[in-house]
Amino acid sequence: MATEALVSFAVERLGDKLIQEATFLKGVREQVEKLRKDIKAMQCFLEEADKKQEEDVRVRYWVSEIRESVYDGEDIIDMFILNAEAVRRNCFLKRVFKKLMNLYEVGKKIEAIQLSLRDISNRREALGIKNIGEGRSRSAQNQMVQDLRRSSPHAEEHVVVGLEKEADELVEQLIRGGDQRRRVISLVGMGGIGKTTLAKKVYNHTQVLKHFPDCRAWAYVSQDCRPRDVYLQIIKQLVFTSTKDQQVLEKEEKLTEHELGDFLHEHLKKKRYLVVLDDVWSPAGWSCLAKVSSNDPDCLGNVFPDGVKGSRLLLTTRRKDVALHADARSIPQEMQLLSQQKSWDLFRRKAFLDHVDDAETYPPDLEELGKEMVVYCNGLPLAIVVLGGLLSRNMSHTEWRKVHDNINAYLAKEGSQTGVMTVLNLSYIDLPSYLKPCFLHLSLFPEDYVISTRKLLLLWIAEGFVLEKAGQQSMKDAAEVYLNELINRNLIQVVRMSVSAKVMECRVHDFVRELAIAKAREHNFFGANIADSLSPSSSNSSLFSSKCRRQSIIYSDIERYASFEHSTPYLRSLLFFNSGHETCRISQLDFVAKCFKVLRVLDLEGLELESLPSIVGELIHLRYLGLRHTGLKLLPLSIGNLRSLQTLDVNNLKQVPNVIWKIQNMRYLYIEGQEDDIPLKIDTLENLQVLSGITFKQWIQNNSIKLTCLGKLKLEGRYELVEGVEFWKSIAKLRVLKSLYLKASEESSFPSLAMDSCLYLSKLDIKGHMQKLSEIFQFPPNLSQLTLDSCRLDFDPMPILEKLPKLLTLRLRAESYLGMVMHVSANGFPQLKVLQLFELSNVINLNIEKGAMPWLMQLQFNFSTRIFGVDKLPNLVELKLTFFRLPLFMYVGLLIHKGGSDWDRSWTTNRNDASELWLRRKKASNIKELNRGCRKFSSFLKGI
After folding, report:
1. In this structure, how many other beta carbons lie within 10 angstroms of the beta carbon of residue 248?
2. How far apart are the first and last CA of the chain?
């Protein structure tokens, strides 16, 4: 489906070009429209063809021909527009002659592509794929993989490492969870992480066997969910357990799916049962199995009854949304990767079969190689088990070295259809078409690279993977939905989240990245990831195909890359990454505009640039230009020629050239840290959605009412240079503005801010000295998130802020308040869920009255602040303490939680080298235990 999606995007782009580039395409409009229709006509075959690629080489070749023809069509149109733009600068006679020549040439090329597409379509029958839309939905190869992976509770894994705690918690939920209603408990995680292994361990646990003595069943579901087969699996285990039942069983096997479901319901409704559904792939699959009513999302399902006897269903799935769909009231148990020590324990048990109990007898040379290979497995149990099993067959150093040096190849093929890559590939096959290009795009990032999600979403938009639909959510919001889908499917790992639960940073597991690279190459999605290991003798012809669409450069010798003779004229994306800590410097960037004239994405973040050449202004197809942390101080005036540019991301410029107003397609403009506050016209940018870094003075010189799409605004500089009433009037004109960030310079300050006219504002960040906190009636009426930073208030802000009726999140950061005591009165903060007090070094006491913050779920504060009234917060589930002295941190961790089992603890170190103790409240735990610990802690603090 990746090809189908890429072709779909191409059709949309050709349609957009017919509208946006009407002037340039005037002479060939009809031909371009006909080409678009011809490509669209091929789409009806592509979705099914993409599915069959996995098993049929002929189909794979046929699909690749369509893809290449579509790419050729895009290339021709883009080059024609580029040449037409260049012709405009010639004299009249020369312009007319060149225009006619260009029209003739592009017409012939489009005609050739149309002929090629017709030929491809005709050869469909000759290749034996005429019935491509018919037949089974799953390939024979995939069905074989499913059959080999079919699980059984009796084939329990004898070597299980690192799942003891998870197993105990799961057993607790199954047999002692106070809720007697039927519950669905889910194990969620990426392929190969050990979900089925844990489920088997728990299913055969002694306490579980006693609790469900005569009504347990295990059913394997798989991608090709067939409810009738699943019901039969369960019925055979629950009902027909002896040979005398065979005749009855044969009769039951003739029943329809619905009849079997009714039979199962009748058998289960008066019993306490445990049913394991292993490998459920989609919410629709669960609904189909449980026969959940589509009109009643709270319906428990007709097949698995709620007999109020403590029955349980245990699901294993790769997708979190499946778990939440099956039972929104149960928290899914998300499987974690193994630690380095547990990874080694599992490996040695699999590889050193004769030396499991005697670590000293391991051959030291093999142990060293083994530990290096375990690091590569990055905590994925399946990879460790496959690797250990492979190496246990041959204990020679030569064989281990061979596997060590070619670990990817061995893990891909070992185990035939149950190898690591084959198992992970099932997740790729299950992706809907619109997500596959986004997944393939992850192949461009270096190994273990922490990806900024803001950047990732903007790259997807620039690539055209997110289509704009009139009257629906913004493209950035749509891209965020795509990201969360990939996270829910455990193909992307979350690294850091915001206080509002938005993903800020993410990464990709090494094996998932390898899968993305393999699939990207298969689809000609990108040309090469070029790393430091590039040998000096390598020729550029061996590295880059002329059809290469994307490149990511992951090495420090950028000057050498610039010196190559580049033969990739149709390159669309070029991303640079500095994998080391040394400075990457490049003196000349002219080669980019000269060699890659139809670039859509150029990301130079982190490279040290002497200047940006004016020739960059000739990249008229460029949509994304990333220049953050490059050291640039000036941008050329020619940047105003980048009429397709959607995102400009740059910081710490001396000044921004006053030509941005020409870029009518600009949507996301990041220009933080300007040194010179010179005029900047931006009110012509009617498509602008995010504006970050404009100064207060620059802002007030523009007519904000024209910025009809602006949803996020960050202002910097000297606030006193603008007139307050006029400023807030300009903000109030922004009808879709939801997020506002005000950052005053150190020599500046805010007076009392009158924000009550900002009716649509929900998020407000203020950084800088405030002369006085606004009165309650001056705040935006719909404010739900407020951050104050460095405001240096000398009186307690809580009496005012606690009256904000819709506030959900409050963050008081460094020096926002200089006093020593804070007080929250009864009924204060009626809806607050998150309260963060960070680096308020003067605050000694926070007093919370009974009835205050009734919905507070997360509380964060420094170790030096004493909290009184924690036991009066009935819904508190997370407590986070920040320490700047590690010994103190470790001591308090024991003091606060000594002997308690109702609160989970975890320790982390954040970016500022501060240690953090997280306490997470378990279900039905006693909050008074935490309060006692806090009181002990407070007493302890008095003496330090």
Report:
1. 11
2. 63
pLDDT, tens digit, for every residue of 405-429?
Answer: 888 777 766 544 456 888 888 888 8
Rounded to whole angstroms, the Cα distance separating 821 from 137 reads 66
For the chain, the residue count is 944
Task: For the chain, state the CA radius of gyration.
Answer: 31
**636-642-646-650 Cα dihedral, nearest 10 degrees:** -10
253-273: average pLDDT:
82
Rounded-to-integer distance, Cα 667 and Cα 669, Å: 7
Closest CA to 438 of 448, 451, 420: 451
Place of tokens 């200089």: 818
Q: Residue 448: left (phi > 0), alpha (psi -120 to 50), or beta?
A: left
Report pLDDT digits (tens) over 110-159.
777 778 777 777 776 665 555 544 444 445 555 555 554 555 565 555 55
- Token readout for 54 is 């996995």
pTM over 0.90: no
CB count within 10 Å of CB 901 equals 9
If residue 903 lies in a helix (H) or strand (E), which one and from where to where?
Answer: strand 903-909
Paired with 625 in beta bridges are: 602, 648
The tens digit of pLDDT for each residue in 344-371 reads 888 888 888 765 555 556 677 788 888 8
Enumerate the H helices of 132-281 as residue ranges. Answer: 140-149, 164-176, 195-203, 206-211, 227-238, 246-252, 257-268
Instruction: Compute, in degrees rounded to 10, the torsion defined by CA atoms 492, 496, 500, 503.
Output: -30
Based on DSSP, count helices (H) and strands (E) in the chain, helices before strands: 31, 31
The secondary structure element, H or E, covering residue 552 is: strand 550-554
| CA angle 793–796–801, rounded 5-degree value | 95
- CA distance linking residue 645 with residue 673, whole number of Å: 21
Beta bridge partner(s), residue 550: 573
Strands 690-695 and 528-531: unpaired
What confidence tens digit (pLDDT) does each residue in 19-38 have? 555 455 555 666 767 776 77
Integer Cα distance of 690 and 292 in angstroms? 42
Q: Name the residue among 825, 832, 822 with its Cα closest to residue 856.
A: 832
Tokens of 492: 């992307």
672-676 mean pLDDT = 92
